[in-house]
Amino acid sequence: MATARSLLVDLFACASVLTLSACASLPSVHYLDPALTAPRTVSIENSRGNNLSQANVKAMLDRRLRHSDVDLQARAALEEAATGSPLIAGNQVTLLYDGPQTMTAMMAAIKDAKNSINLETYIFDQDELGLRFADLLIAKQIEGVTVNILYDSIGTINTPREFFERMRLAGIRLLEFNPVNPLARSGSWEPNNRDHRKILVVDGRIGFTGGVNISNTYSRSSLFRSKSRAGQQTGWRDTHIRIEGPAVAALQMVFIDGWESQHAGELIDRNYFPRLAPAGERIVRVLASSPDSNHAIYRAYVMAMQQATTSIHLTAAYFVPDVQIVEALKNAAARGVDVKLVLSGATDSGLVRHAGQSFYAQLLAAGVKLYQLKVSVLHAKTAVIDGVWSTVGSTNLDTRSFLHNNEINVIVLGDEFGASMESAFAEDLRGSTEVTIESWGQRPLSDRIKEFAARTLEYWL
């Protein structure tokens, strides 16, 4: 996010290549089994964790498709077979469009906490917003609410240790994920594996996830759905979601699994899993991935692209796809699917940007439409496919997210939520400039050289 932090990450990636390239070849990232066969049934859990009957499943999915003829049940069954995760019914899902809206909602939930607050974040900066967030968490801990924070070592590399020590002295339990210092790590040292998740669970009843970090970068509104005037300084464009209902338990489990992966002992015993009544009508699937997992998020993305019949609309802050995603996008465009990608016009990582742009020519030639956001710095990672399959999360469309990071995404099925996602995508398009095959062919030779060089580091970026 910040320039200094991004530079450190880029340098770390280069150092990793120089260290490891002599003794290891890069693994294949084609790990999705194309021969996967969907089962005849799909699982949807209710608020008690029980599976609904297949008749109820069909009726529930049909109600989510008031304006579409997509066979959502077949797609859901295939996705379940690929990811191993069931659908969860009875949720309220609120789309949060930028930093101020997200921070306001998260702070409101924290202020009302009575039992526990579990926060997992990649970045936690010591700045105006970070200090406000820390002060609020300290106040809740003093009130008797148990506060647990899991933060990434690289993501917080610019944050003074005194910032975290102040919270620790107040009684908050803090855990640094995969410390860069090998002497501070329990278990194996894997510095290239990072915790990129953003999760907040309050009292086990309200959950948040998406792309927003705890940083002053998000204290200003983007131009997205705001009344900011032209020329006014704007914030980063990102997306988060707020969830109430049974799916919050899945978010809580992801947080606890991440904590336990660091071998730092069990969390203080609290009521992390209260009984959750239905809170809405949204059907969701919570997917978490890590370097040693089944790459569920990648599988879900590729499968959704392969199954698309009308549209693929992706908003991708960091876009360095593997060959299989490139082929899925090209094949979709070839069969007449409207494939549009909103990508970064400005970025905090030059290496990632140039690596991603090395794919532009072949995508444009295949009929994929590319746009670069100009009104704000793009940090969102979202997709809406056929207007009925939507996802919001922490996962970038790059090899780092799919192979090296701990990530989380929530998939929401249905055309009503899909319409909100399409509206958001349309706003992003209005703030973007299209990249045409003619204009791209006229870029300078220096840019082509940078793209070629950055592409060689794709696996590590």
Q: What do you see in this structure?
A:
- By secondary structure, the chain is of the alpha/beta class.
- The protein folds into two domains: 3-88 and 283-460, 2-Layer Sandwich (Endonuclease, Chain A), CATH 3.30.870; 93-260, Endonuclease, Chain A.
- Helix content is 36%, strand content 23%.
- The protein contains 15 helices and 20 strands.
- It has helices at 3-20, 54-63, 72-83, 99-111, 128-143, 161-169, 247-260, 296-307, 323-334, 350-357, 360-365, 399-404, 415-430, 437-441, 445-455, and strands at residues 44-45, 87-98, 116-121, 146-152, 173-177, 194-195, 199-202, 206-210, 236-244, 282-289, 311-316, 319-320, 338-344, 369-373, 377-378, 381-385, 389-393, 397-398, 405-413, 432-435.
- The strands form two sheets. It has an 18-stranded mixed β-sheet that branches.
- Strand 4, helix 6 (161-169) and strand 5 form a beta-alpha-beta unit.
- Helix 3 packs antiparallel against helix 8, helix 8 (296-307) runs parallel beside helix 9 (323-334) and helix 10 (350-357) crosses helix 15 (445-455).
- The chain is globular, with a radius of gyration of 21 Å.
- The relative contact order is 0.15.
- Residues 13-34 and 225-231 have low confidence and may be disordered.
Whole-number count of domains: 2
Using DSSP, what is the number of strands?
A: 20
Largest sheet: number of strands, sense, barrel closure:
18 strands, mixed
Mean pLDDT: 86
Q: Which outline best applies?
A: globular
The CATH class of the largest domain: Alpha Beta
Separation of the first and last Cα atoms:
14 Å
- Total helices: the number is 15
Would you identify the CATH H-level superfamily of the largest domain? Answer: Endonuclease Chain A
Radius of gyration from the alpha-carbon trace, in angstroms: 21 Å
Fraction of residues in helix = 25-40%
Low-confidence segments, given as residue ranges, are 13-34, 225-231
* Reported CATH architecture of the largest domain: 2-Layer Sandwich
Structural class: alpha/beta
